[in-house]
Amino acid sequence: MSSSSKAQAGQALWSKMPKANAELFALTYGSLVTELVRDYEDPIEVNTQLDRIGHSIGVRCVDELLSKADLAGLGASSTMCANLRDTAEVVAKVGFRMFLGIQAEVGGFSQDQRSFSIYLQENPLSTFVELPAAGDDDYQYGAGGDDLRKLKYSNLYCGVIRGALEQVNLKVECNIVRDTLKGDELNEIRVELKEVLSDGAGDDYKEE
Amino acid sequence: RVTPLSRIQHRGGAGGTYLAQQRQLNYPHFFFSTVSHLPQKTPGSTRLELQLVVTPRQFSLAVKMTVHAIHIFDRKGKTLFTKRYTTTKQQLMQDAEQVSEQRKLIFGMLFSLRELVGSLTPEGESPALHSVKTGAGTLHCYETISGLRIALYTNNNPVMNTLPGGARAAGGEINSKTSFQTALKHIYSEIWVECVVRSPLYRPEDIQVDPPEGRVKFPGRFDIKCTNFELKLDEYLKSMPWFL
Question: What is the pLDDT of residues B179-190, one digit of tens each?
């Protein structure tokens, strides 16, 4: 399946999806993260929570994508990705485009084809966001100024990718490698395939 | 008398002659038969005609439902949704044990068949189980990549209820618009995703299957009943011409 037709599919799907206000979206997410930081205080813990939230989002998004894929001309026969590269392209070109309306690029395939990177030029979640510089927040909580640099603001994406790919039997690990909030020129999410799960009857099957 | 309900004409020679079934017109099951060597309108050409022939059926007094039941399974084998469309009282009062046994059997069968189909399919094509046909009925299946399986158990000969624009709808081969695969796909994408997945109460790990009599409902679990799913599903199925 060629890359351009995936891009077109993404574009077509994006135009069909109901849209929400981008600022509302970004600000809601921002306030969510702020609350989390206030509650947990430890940025690492906040990252985990964001990942968990993203995971449950991803689980639902994948069904939407698969169901709309037919309409976009991806077709039942070609939605089966032959390898990780295809999966990566679908996630970036169709998935990100369809849900967020942004252009994402894939690249950085490793030697064994088990990991890749997704590059985002623009990040709709981080409009209006600035991470405080080191030394700015020495509250009574004793949080060192450096701490918020450890916060992965867009960790939601990692969770979404992880959750979505889990539903199609791919267990992956995602990390944000480069972040525009920290001064890099683009956002990079590194996705690594851990294992391919196999279908099987789970516990519930026997319990019933 | 042979009553042709639709005709598709092809030019081109055809060998032998197949006998057209000549019976009386009766209700409503259709049967394909190829007829060649019919009286030729233009000399020197043979026409191959595909005619619809209606075979005789005993007119039964009981209303025959086309769709018997629908089941939805998730990837792990848990039944997410099941519904029986039947008029006989007996079937409704099936033992709880039996019902869950039946569901497990259906899932097991679908699972094993999928493995089988996967190993039989030639390289490069995507394996997909469409239907399993027995003497009594057919089980149509649709499976998504995310592991959701929808199974629709129907009669063997779907009754085409509506015959508007007669020739087209009655054209032996089921129209792609009303075929079961399309219907199942539609159920997945328009009804399941819209009503269940998008519901804010949806939790994939914690779905409450309809509890058999006597068992307490677990609070906090997501019940499909609290969405519009069943309503929309019924609406959709009723709008299909093969649903009685």
Answer: 788 888 888 888
| CATH number reported for the structural domain that contains residue A99 in this entry | 3.30.1380.20
A204 by DSSP, 3-state: which?
Answer: helix
B193 and A80 within 8 Å at the Cβ level: the answer is no
**Residues of chain B contacting A71 with CB distance shorter than 8 Å:** 189
The total number of structural domains in chain A stands at 1
Mention every residue, 6+ apart, whose C-beta is less than 8 A from residue A76: A70, B126, B128, B185
Query: How far, in whole angstroms, is CA A85 from its chain's centroid?
Result: 17
A108: domain range?
3-13+20-129+146-201
The set of residues, in sequence order, having a beta carbon less than 8 Å from that of B206 and lying 6+ positions away, is B220, B221, B222
Task: Give A-chain residues touching B150 at CB under 8 angstroms.
Answer: none
Tokens of A1: 């399946």
Asked whether residue A124 is assigned to any structural domain, the reply reads: yes
- Contacts with A66 from chain B: Cβ below 8 Å: 144-146
Tens digit of pLDDT for each residue in A14-55? Answer: 888 888 898 999 999 999 999 998 998 888 999 999 999 999
Residue A136 in any domain: the answer is no
Distance in angstroms (rounded) separating the CA atoms of residues B132 and B138:
6
Distance from CA of A45 to the nearest CA of B (A): 23
Test B77 with A202 for CB contact under 8 angstroms: yes
DSSP code, position A94: I
**What is the model's pLDDT at position B96?**
67
Is the CB of A77 less than 8 angstroms away from the CB of B125? yes
- Nearest-Å Rg of the Cα atoms of chain A is 18
What is the three-class DSSP state of B223? strand
By the 8 A CB rule, do A171 and A178 touch?
A: no
Residue A53 forms part of a structural domain: yes
Residues whose CB is less than 8 angstroms from the CB of residue B178 and which lie 6 or more positions away in sequence, other chains included: B240, B241, B242
- The CA–CA distances, whole Å, from A105 to A34, A91, A151, B10, B239 equal 29, 10, 24, 51, 43
What span, in angstroms and rounded, lies between the C-alpha atoms of B82 and B210? 8
Is A141 inside any structural domain? no
Q: Which residues of chain B have pLDDT under 50?
A: 1-63, 161-174, 212-217
Q: Residue A79, CB half-sphere, CA atoms under 13 Å: how many?
A: 23
